[in-house]
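[Automated response] Your request has been received and processed.

Submitted sequence:
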Amino acid sequence: MTQSDIEELFKREGQAHLFDHVSKLTATEKDEFYKNLSKIAGRITPNKLQDAYRKSLEHLQNDDNVSADIKTLPNTSYQSIIGNPSLAEEYYNIGLKSIQNGEVAVILMAGGQGTRLGSSSPKGCYDINLPSHKSLFQIQAEKIWRLQELSNCKKVIPWYIMTSKPTRAATESFFIQNRYFGLQENQVCFFNQGTLPALNSTGSKMFLSSPTDIVQSPDGNGGLYHAIKENNLLEDFKKRGIKHIYMYCVDNVLSKVADPVFIGFSIKYNFLLSTKAVRKRDAHESVGLIASMNGKPCVIEYSEISKELAEERDSDGLLKLRAGNIVNHYYSIELLEKRLNHWCENSTYHIAKKKIPYYNNLTGEYIKPEQPNGIKLEQFIFDVFPEIPLDRFGCLEVERSEEFSPLKNGLGSANDNPDTARLSYLELGTSWLIKAGATVSKDMHVEVSNKISYQGENLSQYKGQIFNKDNTLLELQNSKL
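Generated structure:
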């Protein structure tokens, strides 16, 4: 599109105010400005953005989950491996074989910065103060490395890392500096999360962030689908012979990256899409719930169900609605081939009211509002769940202490902070050693490197060994907490 075509499009679709300062721009600035507008139009035109806002508003106003038929998932979709090691072993063997055959890839959602943690670096670079001082990225890379060793795989496990504009360069640099944590450079692929322009409070006007650009924000975790399409990842999956995708978030220090059990569960029952769940701590824990609504799989917010439904229990005394969402999913390539384009063309958006700093192109001032003055649109990754037939949708309940300890809040907060993440990681490794026959002093925790053990295996050499404050090992590091 020429500059005149771009300007005509944006003016025709209600954005004439963006051009009030164009006559004052240099030729270089003009080129940059129109180039940025062209990129936006290639993703979503102003009219389509406004239409997305109107549909989101209608959905918000018409949403009435109180009258919806909310139930637990049927037994054909929902299973638990808690207290069932033989079932877990069966699934593990199926999944490990698929990994061995080079059929599994991993997608990591890592676009966020560690702002709440007091860091401007990508969250994956964060050090939760383990004795080894390994970053989240290193912990997860070593899980992949160990799994490759365990499976004796014919091909490496591809690791696709979704970054964002603010974190991309720093993330890549961190991997280069650390020599990809022992992985091969060509098995790690970085790609960016998409962005969407912010709108004013009526959803009609875009903001300028500078004389040459528009205010944009990440499009939510549901933007993964657009990112897969825009970066041609589906073609890369097929080229590599990938059949199964394991997706997780960078802030979960306990995530079993490329988990053979979860993959094997999904393969055995021929699920198109699966998700992991942990049991709610209590009836009113603030966590999304994996359930069915009107006969379709969904994630429903804790605030959208009644007190009675939240507290209802089954015949075993467990909460009926207990499947806490941890944003850890399995996708079959079959599903992505069939539905990816549809998801991108028929996206569901959600409205978030925000304070949006902007550039006033009439006065040349940068404005920092004290009250919300606009909205951002975002997508949720689970918006596609209702499109999956129940008999092709799976949910695997796993043990929280072994698989879920997110890092979301800063030091001093009540939970999900660096202290709780570190303690969860150390307690898990310590439990592996004790199970293997080692003795660990009651005031000690031992850090077990994932390069030694993926999920507690390969520790028999420490049977009978006593771990106390004087013990140090090359790949086992201990800490008095």
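Summary generated for your ticket: The mean pLDDT is 93. The radius of gyration is 24 Å.
If you did not submit this request, please reply to this message.
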